[in-house]
């Protein structure tokens, strides 16, 4: 990405081409006329010898200043072209503040690893960068270490808030960006990017919006590192440049007035066509800052980029440093598919089984519970064929009822512990479902098979007292 001065001094002709190339709908004749007028005014000012109007104080010694800038000796002709002044931008719509939270994602912090001059979680091959460190020296840059990002919609704006580990210094030239993937294919389609201003006032200064007009962001394989191709040009179409474009109010940036460690970006929803259901992610970049070289892992090899992982042979960071980005998350829909570049879907929880087996223990004959219910009797459940036990136990209620819940599908063995039957003069004989005819009686049992979430009821047991 170009320096501040270069951004201000964009040639007038490129401004016209940028406006006419914009895909935000066909510009009206009034828009075109306004753009042409702005450019003509800029060129006229240039021919009149107008200087840079970015607010910098003039050098006290003009000769010394020229020597420091272009090494032109006194008396030699200065062949450098005069810079083009910026046309005056008139804003009519300014963002306010984010509303309720619509979407968010979190990102790994490197703060705990900063004393060791390393990070974890960087995956250059998959375009997941965790590199908030300077090249070579590996000095930690907390203002580039993203830990969270939030998106909210307050018509006509989409607001992005970027949370970082530390307050960006006043002199920072870091760019904070939001990348939009409209068709969910892993390739960014739009990039809204801006250099952080020194204060908390909304500004369009150094804010730009790019579009990938030919679908080559991401290279051959979206998100994955691919061998560089000279034909790729990343985000190639500049549709908004510091207020120049179809809409001078399209995109803004500021420091969050209430939180020194947060940066806010606002852009009009119609800038991206008002599309619903997209993926979005954020980037903090004080290194390359070049939309034309995105994704960076397609333009640099890992050997050129370096690595923040100490046990990697490419440690330390080299050409791709001072950078952090997030995975992408959804806006306006709940994902059921793991899209390329998207943050990992939460693991699908294993459904809690709701199968059950229940019945009664009673005194009497036959399979139908009598009025003489037996309470306090221990019922045992085993998994598998009878006479297994030990999986669960239940004790009959005052009505002789027992129940086993939360059972997965399968075969179970239900057994009565006859030693827990209430006292009787001569003991008990089981008469249903299996008659023992012996004294003391064997423990009666039933084999029960249930399907997924099936309830088997009336698995009953009947006993008769033994006559002396």
Low-confidence stretches: 2-33, 39-75
From the alpha carbons, calculate the radius of gyration and give it in angstroms: 36 Å
Number of domains: 3
> In what range is the share of β-strand residues?
25-35%
Polypeptide structure, described:
This protein is an alpha+beta fold. The chain has three domains: 1-88, no CATH class; 89-331; 355-465, Immunoglobulin-like. Helices cover 11% and strands 27% of the residues. The chain contains six helices and 23 strands. The chain has helices at 4-8, 12-21, 29-47, 62-70, 296-299, 302-305; strands at 103-106, 130-131, 146-154, 157-164, 175-181, 190-195, 207-211, 237-241, 244-245, 251-255, 262-268, 278-285, 323-325, 329-331, 355-363, 378-383, 392-395, 401-407, 410-416, 428-432, 445-450, 455-456, 461-465. The strands form four sheets. Strands 2, 5, 6, 7, 8, 9, 12, 13 and 14 form a nine-stranded antiparallel sheet that branches. Strands 1-3-4-11-10 form a five-stranded antiparallel sheet, with no helix packed on it. Strand 10 and strand 11 (262-268) form a beta hairpin. Helix 2 (12-21) packs antiparallel against helix 3. The chain is elongated and about 120 Å long. It starts with a helix and ends with a strand. Residues 2-33 and 39-75 have low confidence and may be disordered.
Helix/strand layout:
Elements lengths: L3 H5 L3 H10 L7 H19 L14 H9 L32 E4 L23 E2 L14 E9 L2 E8 L10 E7 L8 E6 L11 E5 L25 E5 L2 E2 L5 E5 L6 E7 L9 E8 L10 H4 L2 H4 L17 E3 L3 E3 L23 E9 L14 E6 L8 E4 L5 E7 L2 E7 L11 E5 L12 E6 L4 E2 L4 E5 L3
